[in-house]
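Propose amino acids for all 465 sites.
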């Protein structure tokens, strides 16, 4: 008889399973994707606050520093390589060009101030957004926050136009400027135009995956399309010709990327809505017509704003011819302007209304970002700074072409925002409280174009594991 003791099987205790948001990623606890983008959403929310006239910094600028800090902390805790190699090259190029131009600035304050602003808008905040936006859920939250900001600013702008409490335009306080005031007439136009582009991309992005798909997906597209149409009204009342052109171009490209047949249908609907608003209801028809025709009036009795713009463009080109490689230095355009501009340039533009008294605003930039870089930073700055933008655009469009239709709900808005910025830079430059929004738009485009594949992988098909 076998009297040896029985060998008991080892007791296997199940390992505690942490909730998904707290599972370890590397050596640090991972943060849920929606919580990760809350600092970015906070910047967007702060852009809806009234702007103090004459203030050099805004709450949104301060919050953008918090976004950078959060990205640094998350990267350190994650103990991983922060950026892909392509992203490091794309965002390293502007640092070189801006640093060389800062060395040629007239004063130390100009050098430090210009360097900080360029790095904030084109390097630090975009990289932080790239790191904090971790998947499509986080990207959609940021995109819808941009639409919400546009609706808020647009509603204020429409009220200003209807009640005559907006900024001064042709002797009447009817220009919609939102909370940005008459000193930054492009602020509301930038916000509303970005909302139109994002809403259009969200509406075109994802088709229903199957017959009988969950209602929220279809309703989201309907709501986005309604927001895009509603935002056309405050965009028109902003009287910003550059924003009109950039929005039409960006939305048109989005429509073509989504399909020619859908583009024809949406274009027909937009034309019908414009006919009803302007022709049928007479919403600012005469003023809008005058503003549209002034775009092409360069030699035949143009208005003074057109004369000033082309005069400053010529002055910027003349500055570059004098210093072709490195330019005249960061923030040096105002100091060299009078020595290169013709007598056709006026002393400034009249601003008033929207709660502010009359003042003469000096013309301190050429209102063309490419010419501003060319004049202040030369060919070196244009190749490194503007070259990084177009490299980002190429990467974004190439990834869009290779991606499936499941991820286009985020891809189309991201590419549209980048296209809008690059076209709008033909008629505007950085400056004012809305500049922080441009940094976020570059960051969203960078997330789509340069993030690792896992960040933008399509969602799992229904019924599959």
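Proposal:
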């Amino acid at each position: 008889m076998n009297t040896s003791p029985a060998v008991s099987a080892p007791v296997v205790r199940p390992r505690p399973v942490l909730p998904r948001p707290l599972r370890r990623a590397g050596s640090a606890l991972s943060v849920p994707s929606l919580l990760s983008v809350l600092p970015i959403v906070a910047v967007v929310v702060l852009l809806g606050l009234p702007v103090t006239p004459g203030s050099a910094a805004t709450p949104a600028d301060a919050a953008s520093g918090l976004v950078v800090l959060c990205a640094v902390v998350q990267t350190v805790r994650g103990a991983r390589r922060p950026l892909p190699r392509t992203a490091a090259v794309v965002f390293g190029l502007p640092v070189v060009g801006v640093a060389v131009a800062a060395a040629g600035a007239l004063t130390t304050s100009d050098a430090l101030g210009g360097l900080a602003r360029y790095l904030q808008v084109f390097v630090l905040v975009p990289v932080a957004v790239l790191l904090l936006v971790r998947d499509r859920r986080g990207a959609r939250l940021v995109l819808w926050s941009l639409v919400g900001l546009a609706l808020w600013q647009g509603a204020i702008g429409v009220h200003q136009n209807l009640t005559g409490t907006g900024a001064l335009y042709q002797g009447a306080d009817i220009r919609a400027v939102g909370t940005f005031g008459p000193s930054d007439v492009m602020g509301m136009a930038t916000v509303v135009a970005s909302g139109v582009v994002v809403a259009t991309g969200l509406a075109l992005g994802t088709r229903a995956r199957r017959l009988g798909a969950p209602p929220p997906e279809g309703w989201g597209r309907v709501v986005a399309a309604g927001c895009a149409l509603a935002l056309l009204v405050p965009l028109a009342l902003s009287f910003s010709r550059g924003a009109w052109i950039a929005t039409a171009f960006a939305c048109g490209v989005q429509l073509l990327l989504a399909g020619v047949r859908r583009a024809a249908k949406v274009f027909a609907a937009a034309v019908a809505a414009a006919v009803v608003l302007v022709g049928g209801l007479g919403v600012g028809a005469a003023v809008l017509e005058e503003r549209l025709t002034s775009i092409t009036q360069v030699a035949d009795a143009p208005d003074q704003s057109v004369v000033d713009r082309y005069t400053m463009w010529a002055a910027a080109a003349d500055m570059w011819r004098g210093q072709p490689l490195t330019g005249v230095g960061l923030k040096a355009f105002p100091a060299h302007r009078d020595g290169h501009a013709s007598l056709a340039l006026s002393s400034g533009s009249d601003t008033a209304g929207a709660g502010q008294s009359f003042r003469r605003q000096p013309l301190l930039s050429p209102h063309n970002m490419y010419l501003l870089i060319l004049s202040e930073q030369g060919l070196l700055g244009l190749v490194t700074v503007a070259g990084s933008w177009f490299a980002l655009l190429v990467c974004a469009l190439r990834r869009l072409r290779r991606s499936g239709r499941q991820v286009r709900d985020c891809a189309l808005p991201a590419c549209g925002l980048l296209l809008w910025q690059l076209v709008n830079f033909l008629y505007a430059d950085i400056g004012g409280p809305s500049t922080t929004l441009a940094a976020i738009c570059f960051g969203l485009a960078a997330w789509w174009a340069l993030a690792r594949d896992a960040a933008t992988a399509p969602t799992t098909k229904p019924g599959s594991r």
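The longest helix spans residues 369-402. The first strand starts at residue 24 and ends at 25.
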